[in-house]
Specification:
145 residues; single chain; elongated; mainly alpha
Length: 145
């Protein structure tokens, strides 16, 4: 009787195995009840945010920087520039910040030649905005072939 029970349960298990291994509608093996969800409609773009409502980033932790004094000096300079340009918004704000930010000290850079190339490219592209600015930087930073 025990052997008959064993043989029957083994036969049922072997017959049911291919059914269990089949993929369900959601691509999950053995999950016939799951159905794929309909595609989620795209949400509308977020409305523009006023400068007073923008998320303020916390300043970088200068204690983790390689050159603590340089990090703190950069933060102070950025704070002064942001204070002097706070009455502007949008494109005027970006131009104001770009004009008033002091250049980086390339003598303390890991690669001074690269730093100077970046400064020269930024100076050449200062009057451009958006895609024109990015393309100008690419043209002036990439080595000519």
């Amino acid at each position: 009787m025990k052997t008959l029970l064993f043989v029957v349960s083994l036969a049922v298990a072997l017959i049911a195995m291919p059914v269990i291994a089949q993929q369900g509608p959601a691509g999950v093996p053995g999950a016939p009840g799951l159905a794929p969800l309909p595609p989620f409609p795209h949400s509308p773009p977020a409305p523009p945010v006023a400068p007073s409502q923008q998320v303020k980033r916390s300043p970088a932790d200068c204690s983790k920087a390689r050159d603590i004094e340089q990090c703190q000096a950069r933060q102070e300079a950025r704070h002064k520039v942001l204070e002097s340009c706070k009455d502007k918004s949008g494109v005027q704000f970006k131009q104001c910040v770009g004009e008033k930010m002091p250049p980086t000290d390339c003598s303390k850079s890991a690669d001074p030649a690269r730093c100077q190339r970046h400064q020269k490219a930024r100076e050449l592209c200062r009057d451009k905005l958006g895609n024109e600015h990015r393309q100008c930087l690419r043209d002036n930073l990439m080595p000519k072939k």
